[in-house]
Amino acid sequence: MESKTRFSRVIILGYGKVTGEVLQYVSDRRTAYGYELVFIEHEVHSLSVTERICAQNGIPFHRITNRGTLGAFLDRLTEQTLIISASNNYLFPASLVEKPHITIINFHNALLPAYPGRNAPTWVIYRGEKKTGITWHYVTAGVDEGSIIIQKECEITADMKAYELTERLMDLASDAFRECFADIMAGCAQTREQGFDPGRRMYRSREIPADGILDLTKEPEEIYRLLRSVDYGKNAIFPCLRTSIDGREAQILRYRKIPEEKRKEGEGFLYLPLGDGELLKIKYCFTDNDGM
């Protein structure tokens, strides 16, 4: 017996952990719902697992990196279609969103209506928020403006880095998706309007906290917050932070929190007091050759 749904086709766009888990979950339910499943990779990532999942489960896989080509592909859809946007940065045109046979849902890594746009984990850490979360919402013509389907919250701990928060949010997103999937498919998900201020701040992909400058005159806690906010581990989302030391430009290579007794003086290191007997150790290098 088939589960209740009005969609004959489901299309998933995205990359990364959330997309892989959503793809596998939706694939496992094809027989129950009877829909056709298609995956589209718009942004190519070397560590993505989605192509392997598609190959293992017989899911049509399309790599469409050109925005115009992707738009034309989606514009040709004629069936009742659910598009699941998971960790996807493609902005759906209003002409597609407004089609009556197209429904689009999106995962956002913040508690909308706060922190719409890109790199939300960065901004919540930088601005000193104590909690954040994830949102699954319907897509409208406005960016991150659609009705909220489900949200989940988590704490931002004192030493949490952007990549650690991102991992936590991805786990929440997967859990939330599984909770609301059946209602979305049946068209009976209980939603609520965002109620946002039309003048709210939209965060752009090109923006970097503090314009990428580490101001050493700031309080050490604020400096530590900035460092953590742009720290995505091996994923170089942002360029290295820059600073000025003795009138020379330097770039920050790495940092960590250490107890005072582990302090070792040496060239290319800064130590800032964080309180409670702890120091912020910052490794830097000069970007010029002066003094060499």
Describe the model:
This protein is an alpha/beta fold and 292 residues long. The protein has two domains: 9-186, Rossmann fold (3-Layer(aba) Sandwich), CATH 3.40.50.170; 209-286, no CATH class. The protein has eight helices and eleven strands. The protein has helices at residues 16-28, 30-33, 50-57, 67-75, 94-97, 120-126, 162-186, 220-229; strands at 9-14, 36-41, 61-63, 81-86, 102-108, 131-138, 148-155, 242-245, 248-259, 269-275, 278-286. The strands form two sheets. Strands 3-2-1-4-5-6-7 form a seven-stranded mixed beta sheet. Helix 3 (50-57) links the parallel strand 2 (36-41) and strand 3 (61-63). The relative contact order is 0.11.
Brief descriptors of the model:
292 residues; 8 helices; seven-stranded mixed beta sheet; Rossmann fold; alpha/beta; single chain
* % residues in beta strands: 25-35%
Number of strands: 11
Q: How far is it from the N-terminal to the C-terminal residue, by CA?
A: 76 Å
* Main sheet properties: 7 strands, mixed
Low-pLDDT runs of 5+ residues are: none
User: What is the CATH domain class of the largest domain?
Assistant: Alpha Beta
> What's the CATH topology name of the largest domain?
Rossmann fold
Corresponding CATH superfamily of the largest domain:
Formyl transferase, N-terminal domain
Mean pLDDT: 94
The topology string of helices and strands comes to EHHEHEHEHEHEEHHEEEE
Cα shape: elongated
- Tally of alpha and pi helices: 8
Q: What's the Cα radius of gyration?
A: 22 Å
Structural class computed from helices and strand pairing: alpha/beta
- Strand order of the main beta sheet, please? 3-2-1-4-5-6-7
Number of domains: 2
The CATH architecture of the largest domain? 3-Layer(aba) Sandwich
Q: Please, what is the oligomeric state?
A: single chain
The amount of helix comes to: 25-40%
